[in-house]
Structures
1.
Amino acid sequence: MLRNSHGLSFGQRLADSHLRPKPLSCLVKDVTDSLMNPGFQHLATGMFQIGLAKLDADPEWHDDRPDLEGPFRLSFPRAQGWGEELLVASLLKRHADASKAVVQVIASEQVCSILKHDPAFLPKLRESDKEGRSPLAILRHALMGKLLDERFVPLASPGATPPSTIDRRPSVGIAWASVSSSGLISDKFVPVERFLPLLTCLDADLISLQRKLSVADPNGLARSRGVRIIEDEVLEASTPAAVEALVELLTGQ
């Protein structure tokens, strides 16, 4: 099994970047979302070189440039969702902060409504799937390079206020399953009874960002373990105003 220079698997490497007061929902979803491209199956087991090479062989993912200069298309090809876009933006924010750069990014309306508040980005509304560079270079720098060694800087959110001098207990957003109208999607979920024990080491308040919780957690394990539940009517809202309201709810602003 191939590992990166830090000896971490894909899940561990990205998890390290997310044990902060921001959602972890994208982690499990991206690790298990093997239907997007076979390369993700290799990334999930720490075979970074093979996984990234498979992504690069896909015309929709291909990017042979070594730099992190935009414009970047934040969405994952054939798997567009603003969870993935925020994951990529969070990784790119480390580079922007370290290099004092402003990066042009192409994103959905919902994510543009968030990133427009962040001086590290020049967000542009996505009009096609062929605009800009794919996020491959960002994943390559995160998994094989030094990007995750750069200082973590939270994305600026709507109505953000200066950091409080009072220590606040961190919050971590979680999700573990992709759910369709007919139930859990094969190869795109982690059984909740196996997922929750992995988080016992976190000294943080857990917030469920899981859609269709009645399907993903039919026995109510998350609620019984004290996970704060965000209801479907809030999570399913997709307008920019609703997304901004959800961000403010999660960040406590």
2.
Amino acid sequence: MIRLSALLTVILFTFWTFAACAACDWRLIDPGNGRFTTGTLSLDLGEADTNQPPTAWQGPVTIARQDGGSCTVDPAVGIIERPIFANVTILLISTFSGSNRTIFGVDGRSCKVLWKSRPFTGDVTLHGARLILGRTTLMLQKSCLP
């Protein structure tokens, strides 16, 4: 009976996690030259490096909304690199310093940093409700953040 209960708990947790994440609707963003639009937000990642196409931007990140308002993200969100993920209101922005990477969850409406990862090394991937940072896997919550 305990095994059946544990199995049902795992199934319900998995369903809840994927159902919650489905509402997040993350998209991988191609930042191009560092100025791009996603949904109703227009972003400028700041000065680009000299690579063609650019691979890093100095920041600060500025966000303009469709209603005419704009804001600037905390300067700690820089040096920016790929990948960048976005949904309707939240951006997951990858940054680096030396060999360490950090991911920031930023509210696109207010430019407020909602979440910051610990520094890590390795790749960044997003698969359903799993944000993989190097060797660490984080589960996304209903808030669309770990």
